[in-house]
Design a protein that fits this description.
Ferritin, mainly alpha, binds fe (ii) ion, 0% strand, 5 helices
């Protein structure tokens, strides 16, 4: 398949994001189970709900564009999430694992922030200001989720420092 216009590239990148968000909703329950900190668990639980809503936004965007966003696998997110799974497998339960989970989760958020930043720009250039608005709402949520993780990391990391080896 050839992508020769910005409009086509825009659709392809939206499909990538659609896949990424679905992968995140599948991964989060496992991550929540592996997390010890109640504050961190709560942050992930609320982000899981937010992510489901972000998928609904993407469904709406697909409808507006008259295109299905299904059928693609975001390989980047797959890799980032498998690194997160590695942390859970390799690090014993407790504060140190939580610190590793936050580090992995912030990689997820930054990946998403980069992806949304690009498609918002494309949407604006292509005259889809309504779609750009919806995507911007999601970008703000990803930024807030990242900031929340930074905040929780202050407590978790300081406990991890003193965790017994
Ligand atoms: Fe998301």
């Amino acid at each position: 398949m050839s992508v020769d216009t910005l409009q086509k590239l825009f659709i392809e990148e939206l499909k990538d994001i659609y896949s990424a968000e679905h992968q995140i909703t599948r991964a989060l329950p496992k991550i929540i189970k592996a997390t010890s900190s109640e504050e961190l668990k709560a942050a992930f639980e609320s982000h899981l709900e937010e992510t489901k809503n972000q998928i609904e936004r993407l469904d709406k965007i697909g409808e507006t564009l008259g295109r299905s966003l299904k059928g693609k696998t975001c390989e980047g997110m797959k890799g980032v999430l498998s690194e997160g799974t590695e942390v859970i497998e390799e690090v014993e339960e407790g504060e140190v694992r939580d610190a590793g989970i936050i580090s992995a989760a912030q990689r997820v958020e930054h990946y998403e922030m980069a992806a949304y930043g690009a498609v918002i720009e494309f949407a604006n250039l292509l005259g889809h200001s309504d779609i750009a608005g919806l995507l911007s709402e999601t970008l703000q949520e990803e930024k807030a989720a990242d900031a929340k993780l930074t905040k929780v990391s202050k407590t978790v990391n300081s406990e991890a420092v003193t965790a017994s080896a």
